[in-house]
Amino acid sequence: MKKFGIETRHVITWIISVTIAIITTLLITSNAVANSTIEAFGNNLVETLVAGFEAIVNPDMHYEEAIEAIEEEARALRNKVATLENDVATLENEKKLIQNDLDILQATYERYQALTSRVAVKYEANEQLRVANVSLMSENTSLVSERDILRQQLADVVNNDSVYQQAVDTETARTPMQFWETVPPFEQSRTRVPGFNVLVAGNPISDARTFQGRDGVNGVNSQTRHNLNEQYSILRANVGRLDGSRMVRSTLTFTGDGRELYIREIGVYDMPRPIEIDLTGVSQLIIRHDGNSNVMGAGLWNEASVAIFDAWIE
To answer: What three-state secondary structure class fits 298?
Structure first.
């Protein structure tokens, strides 16, 4: 088709060329505007970064250089943060170790306090024991003194024959006689005859008849039997526990014709004492000692043994 003498294909070609030219012009214009806008934005960005990061960003820097500088600083700061976090972790571990040490010290201190308390209690108990011991020593000294006095009195009795002197019956003028020689036992068990030296309250006695403890196996009492035939009126003697004999109480009994004439319990720490027994009208006299002995045939010093000494009859 032709119009105004121009072919259609030529018109289309021209339109396309013009369109391309227009687009090219627009693109060139757009790129220039964009570059200008980006450059202005970059300058504004640099100014902003200089205000916030004056020590890092220089006003003469391109915005890309400024961003790179800031990123470099950020990397350095992140490294510092990582280092600080490691330091914090190390400090936390050290804190735990120190806390463990503190716990150990606290437990040690508490044990020390407990030990100190126990030591104080023991010290107080020891002090009380010391005071009690001093008191006991004082009492013991007093008892020893009293014992020595009694021993001396006993020695005076034995040496001065005071029992014999007291036994003289001034009304009948009958002379006392040695008991063991005058009325020797016609039956006896577990006794030792006079002449066997023993100690009574620390004093040696040579005329004592000793009575041992009862035989714990066979139940045999230590005793003697004497025929008096109603010929005698009184028996005077001293009775005491043998030194070194078993530490138990025992009983000494005098029986005349089945009637109890005299009985005495002898304690572990009793001192020797004089006795006086009325024998008027007595035909047969039994002297029995009842003490404890758990061993058949035990030795004299292992039993609850007593001695009758300085015995006189009239």
So the answer is: coil
What pLDDT digit, counting tens, does each position of 140-159 carry? 777 777 777 776 766 665 55
Counting beta carbons within 10 angstroms of the beta carbon of residue 178, is it exposed (0 to 12), middle (13 to 18) or buried (19 or more)? middle
Is residue 250 within 8 Å of 306, Cβ to Cβ? yes
Q: What CATH number is given for 170-313 in this structure?
A: 2.60.120.1060
180 Cβ contact list (under 8 Å, min separation 6): 193, 194, 207, 209, 311
pTM of the model: 0.45
Residue 27 main-chain phi, psi, to 5 deg: -65, -45
User: Which value, in Å, is the radius of gyration of the alpha carbons in the chain?
Assistant: 64
pLDDT tens per residue, range 85-131: 898 899 999 899 999 888 998 988 888 888 888 888 888 888 888 88
The owner of tokens 């980006």 is 38
- The pLDDT of residue 161 is 46
Strand partners, 254: 262, 287
